[in-house]
Amino acid sequence: LKNKAYLAEVFDSIQGEGLLVGSRQIFVRFCGCNLRCYYCDTQWQKKPQFAVYHRPVVGGPAQMLDNPVSADQLKEILTGFTPRWISFTGGEPLLWHEFIMELANDLKAQGYKIMLETNGTLYEQMDKCCKLVDVVSMDYKLPSATGCNYREEHRRFLKAALKSKVFIKMVLTARTSWAEVKEAVAVISSCSQELVLYLQPVTTDNCADKIDMKFLLDIQEYCQNHIPETRILPQIHPYLRWR
Length: 243
Ligand code: SF4
Prior knowledge:
Blueprint: E1 4-5, E2 7-14, E3 24-30, E4 50-54, E5 62-66, E6 69-70, H1 71-78, E7 85-89, H2 97-109, E8 113-118, H3 123-129, E9 135-139, H4 143-146, H5 151-161, E10 165-172, H6 178-191, E11 197-201, H7 213-224, E12 230-232, H8 237-240
Parallel strand pairs: 2-4, 3-7, 7-8, 8-9, 9-10, 10-11, 11-12
Antiparallel strand pairs: 1-6, 2-3, 4-5
Helix pairs in contact: 3-5, 5-6
Bound molecules: iron/sulfur cluster (SF4).
């Protein structure tokens, strides 16, 4: 499957999170993930029979693609979209890093810019891809979200990703604790204090999962002492009622 991948969907929208919020992008959503965050809204089947794509704009007619999709097929589909930014997202796109590497070489030659949205754990794969990626959006996964501590993976991942432009998102919920925030800040600031850290209050319909506003602001103040550019930015799609 080196040059084929299981895709969930391909669509055109605006980026709803982080450094490039508001940027018009083509989203290529890969299937499968190596983590299981309790708040995940993208628990895509590992190998669905079809991927769905919408062309040319948000809300365009849905069309079906047989999975797995080849790199050539995907390149052809991308020519029907207008944005010049492509976001590889998931699931966890680095599970398909060989496919991404093959594709990204050609896409870069055609003038596309590439963003990678990743859970920040697959450091060996990141190391191989970093020269082909313009911006890495790395999630720092707190143990309260995944049930595991990925501190070492995140440290190694960040070192690899820093060869490219990288920013970090940290989703905060009612389960977030001071201890895990402090540990995360120590890991991140030991790699770099120059990057932008986005604190993202979880998007959920369940009020019990939402982080307390005062706690959120206290966390920001703490983080800013170690990572000066720490910003609070919720996902904007729920406010717009967009996907
Ligand atoms: S890393 Fe992302 S895709 Fe994977 S389980 Fe967590 S939220 Fe879902």
